[in-house]
């Protein structure tokens, strides 16, 4: 297994034993390839919805880009909501605004669940 690039993030990460290598055929409802933010979040939400989920990761969980960034959660868009409203209408602006805040509220719960 390749070692993580030397960085603050690698040095401050919680230590855990590597998972066993998959050496047999298994069945599942959904196979998620990649144990980064997107893969783990997808796997968590699918499992919470009742699916039997398997995550395959070539190295370590969070090994790639997900484990090499500052991890800021910025719940905004590249344009202000009034610009979105002007271009796409009030309903779309409200929907996107709601999604933005919902994501900001949901992320800490997802992170905590994945960390446990």
From TrEMBL:
InterPro entries referenced in this protein's UniProt entry, alphabetically: FAD-dep_OxRdtase (IPR006076), FAD/NAD-bd_sf (IPR036188)
CC annotations in GO: cytoplasm
EC number, UniProt record: 1.4.3.-
Keywords: Oxidoreductase
Keyword NADP in record: no
Pfam family membership, one: DAO
Protein name according to UniProt: Gamma-glutamylputrescine oxidoreductase
Organism: Escherichia coli
Lineage, highest ranks first: Bacteria, Pseudomonadati, Pseudomonadota, Gammaproteobacteria, Enterobacterales
């Amino acid at each position: 297994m390749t070692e993580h690039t030397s960085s603050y993030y690698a040095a401050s990460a919680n230590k855990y034993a590597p998972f066993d290598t998959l050496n047999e055929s298994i069945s599942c409802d959904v196979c998620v390839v990649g144990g980064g933010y997107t893969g783990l979040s997808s796997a968590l939400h699918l499992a919470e919805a009742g699916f039997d989920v398997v995550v395959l990761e070539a190295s370590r969980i969070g090994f790639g880009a997900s484990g090499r960034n500052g991890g800021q959660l910025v719940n905004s868009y590249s344009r202000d909501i009034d610009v979105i409203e002007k271009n796409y209408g009030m309903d779309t602006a409200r929907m996107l605004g709601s999604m933005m805040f919902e994501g900001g509220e949901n992320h800490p719960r997802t992170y905590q669940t994945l960390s446990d």
